[in-house]
């Protein structure tokens, strides 16, 4: 069988990978078959989120320092940063 015929083995279909149908064939010692878009949920999040950031100007350092000092303690800000980092890592790895 060949890739040209999209039939790696008898009885199995090997679909073309497209943007609308991101399917691929799994060649693995444990299992074989079709998989769907690797990391599809994580990529979908970033594909929607990153364009929203374009065109938003960075705040001045003075504005950030004033806001942190007046509304949030340094310890709470550090905890918030760690939680956001953990959430981003969880979403990227596809645990959620």
Question: What can be said about this structure in brief?
Answer:
It comes from Cotesia glomerata (Lepidopteran parasitic wasp). By secondary structure, the chain is mainly α. It contains three helices and two strands, in the order E-E-H-H-H.
Main beta-sheet strand count, sense and barrel state: 2 strands, antiparallel
Total DSSP helices: 3
- What integer is the average pLDDT? 73
Parts with pLDDT < 50 across at least 5 consecutive residues: none
Strand content: 5-15%
Give me the count of strands. Answer: 2
Taking all Cα atoms into account, the compactness measure Rg is 22 Å
The strand order across the widest sheet is: 1-2
Query: Cα distance, first to last residue?
Result: 37 Å
| Helix and strand element order | EEHHH
Q: What's the domain count?
A: 2
Structural class by helix and strand composition: mainly alpha
User: Could you say which overall geometry the principal axes of the C-alpha atoms support?
Assistant: elongated
Portion of residues within helices? 40-55%
């Amino acid at each position: 069988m060949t890739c040209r015929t999209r039939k790696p083995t008898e009885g199995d279909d090997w679909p073309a990978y497209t943007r609308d149908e991101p399917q691929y064939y799994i060649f693995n010692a444990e299992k074989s078959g079709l998989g769907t878009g690797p990391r599809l949920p994580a990529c979908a999040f970033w594909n929607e989120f990153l364009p929203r950031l374009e065109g938003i100007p960075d705040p001045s350092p003075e504005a950030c320092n004033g806001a942190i000092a007046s509304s949030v303690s340094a310890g709470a800000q550090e905890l918030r940063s760690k939680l956001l980092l953990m959430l981003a890592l969880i979403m990227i790895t596809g645990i959620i």
